[in-house]
What we know:
With 293 residues, this protein is an alpha/beta fold. It is 38% helix and 17% strand.
Amino acid sequence: MILLDGKKISAEVKAEIKIEVDKLRESGGKIPHLAAVLVGTDGASETYVGSKVRSCEEVGFRSSLIRMEAATKEDELMKVIEGLNNNPDVDGFIVQLPLPKHINEENVTKAILPEKDVDGFHPVNVGRMTLGQPSYISATPYGIIQMLEKYNIETSGKHCVVVGRSNIVGRPMSILMSQTSKFANCTVTLCHSRTKDLASFTRMADILIVALGKAEFVTADMVKDGAIVIDVGITRVADASKKSGYTIKGDVKFDEVAPKCSYITPVPGGVGLMTVASLMKNTLLSAKKEIYK
Length: 293
């Protein structure tokens, strides 16, 4: 069993980005600028945004964090988005999800200019990705693809089973793995909460990508020997023995599943770190105008 080390690979990706940023700085080019909008004080969101800000510092980006109260009205958030859309100094920005329930996430996503949508959530970017055209790819699926590339994992002709159909991970992941490219070319099955006899599908998977958000849902009897297992889940589980009061669990019961795998991602230390690295990569692409010329 080989551990797909997100900490190691994300560090490599960020080091590559830093080299490019240093070259931009030396040549007098524009330094990439990523902005993040955080509405409310959700604990997980605070952690994610903090990680993104630190990563900007590591690679040499400029970053801005805009904090807004949980009671912020949708039209107030829209004004901030409009300002960022029209700010030529900001190359890309994200509005951290989830948003308070009184704000429509779809409206917010559509309001972000596609060329500044470095999260890859806008319908234009999703459509371009689906058609195999240049686009910002949703950061988590993009991170998984980069992980497969860095470990040079053969995927062509393999059966990839994706569990979870969210617009952020499951759906784009299923499309990417079916595309004509070196680290794809899979036969893909997309499973979800209404799939009957789910285990019968997961046991057929050469590559199993799990994005359910249910702690330790996938057990050893659901995975075939030699499978490649990508665990996207990050769930906070109460743990009185921890100073934080919780421990982080993935969707896969790692200790019992890992011995059966050829490759597996840990949680934490796997896909999550690659997600942040991919956001940095999308921001660099935006600054260099490589997607939207």
